[in-house]
Amino acid sequence: MMTEFKLPKPLPTPTEDSKPFWDGCQRQELLLQKCDDCGTWRFPPGILCPRCMSTNSKWTKASGKAKVFSWQVTHQAFYPAWDTPYNVAIVELEEGPRMHSNIVGCKNEDIYIDMPLELTFEKVEEQEWYLPKFKPASNANAPRKSK
Amino acid sequence: MSLRDKCALVGVSLTRLGKKISDKSTMGFALEGCKKAIEDAGLTKDDVDGLLFAHPSQQGERHGFSGRVADLLGISSNFNATVDCGGATPIVLVQMAALAINAGMCHTVVCCYGWQNNPIDVPPSLPPNFEFTLPQGEISAVPFLAQIARRHMHDFGTTGKQLGTVAVNCRKHACLNPNAQMYGKPITLEDHQNSRWVSEPLRLLDCCPWTDGGGAVVVTSAARAKSLKHRPIYVSGFGQAHGAPLMRPWRNPKISDWAVWTRASDTAFKMAGVTRKDIDVAQLYDAFTIVFLVQLESSGFCKIGESGPFVGTGKTALGGELPCNTAGGLLSEGHTMGLGHIVESVCQLRGECGDRQVKNAEFAFATGFGGVVNEYPPSFSCSALILRR
Ligand SMILES: [Zn+2]
Q1: If both were cysteines, with which of A4, A52, B17, B255 could B334 make a disulfide (CB 3.0 to 4.6 Å apart)?
Q2: With contact defined as beta carbons under 8 Å apart, do B307 and B293 qualify?
């Protein structure tokens, strides 16, 4: 279903704390902070480790491997910037943190919990901005046959 | 020192609730709620020396809102705050009032709420800086709760029909409550199953409506309560829990491990000195059907993962072993941020509920649940309250 009118897709508005994450995305790198003291990878970006409160960390490139933790298919867009239906998933990165993203390169009906995923970057249409997205990994289940 | 039964709820009110009631502002609804609750208590405004306001915080920062409510009400308060823990707030207000009264800061506190969905003084705008959800298309609470529902279905086999049973029960109860937004509009399980997807797996009838309205409750000391108009309804126990466990996998490997929220009700039951079996009527936060199920589990009324079958066998409907959301809940009485759950608990214990009255209700339990779903990490607050007559 096409919405009758559309607004431009909203872009992230980085904070002082999250800017390195978004800068990394523009270079098509998924950077997360890894705690120097306890080794925990964290997301969202923050000035300290929520596990040990250490303020020592390094921005480190994530493997890009992930799996579907959960997902929903939006049929009623509360902000008219997307064609419905579209999916938003919570993905669990191999490093541990979970984040919201979209599953691309497969039908909504073919998404499943624990589906193995691979990182990809997509440019927001007509805007100079890359967002991290995920596509089915090569070992994901084959798509269901359409009826 | 235990605060068990040291304070009481002595006055309650709800305004008219509905969609597009355009004759009052958020402030107007709050003031109407305060006036009605103070009158219900048989008090005058000069008897009130504290005021708390539950602030949904979605229409821009309104600094010092509670201070203005108090001034417009014409009271001079010794205890005053605007509080935002999302849907947990109204119960949190009652807890804060009990703490302040027992600390000797004040003796009588009105806890109020008001909400105008389409304020003529505030242009619609995007909330600021949802950098990790908005660009991904995740907007409002529905999608996040849909993700929780999906995971609950996966982990425990919960079904859409079980979610629907929650909606149908609430609607049945609302049809016994003339002030409910959905009064006179019964639904069947089939209606639920045929309602459109909003965020799949949640359908339209899994979601509470937008509600314009407000209300208030008056808290005072048990000693003072004894001489007032109604029989005192004692604040027997309360607790809170806060956190963002879903995004912290090292704490909770499964989305459905609601250990964080269980602390709120455990604290409340310990303070009240009663068990789940003693509860005669419960009002569980239900902005969405899945939230009700999660609350049923985290409040300890059934095991984690067993809420679907629990509601499926009719236990939570009027006449069941744990009648829940007897006024219709947020799903059908209307979204009062959960204030309605406190009001209904009090009315049940006073025996004022007419056709929906739970016979001889002595102990009531209520929860609030809310927080930020679009800011990161999505963090929730849970509040629990045990009342007795
Ligand atoms: Zn650390």
Answers
A1: B17
A2: yes
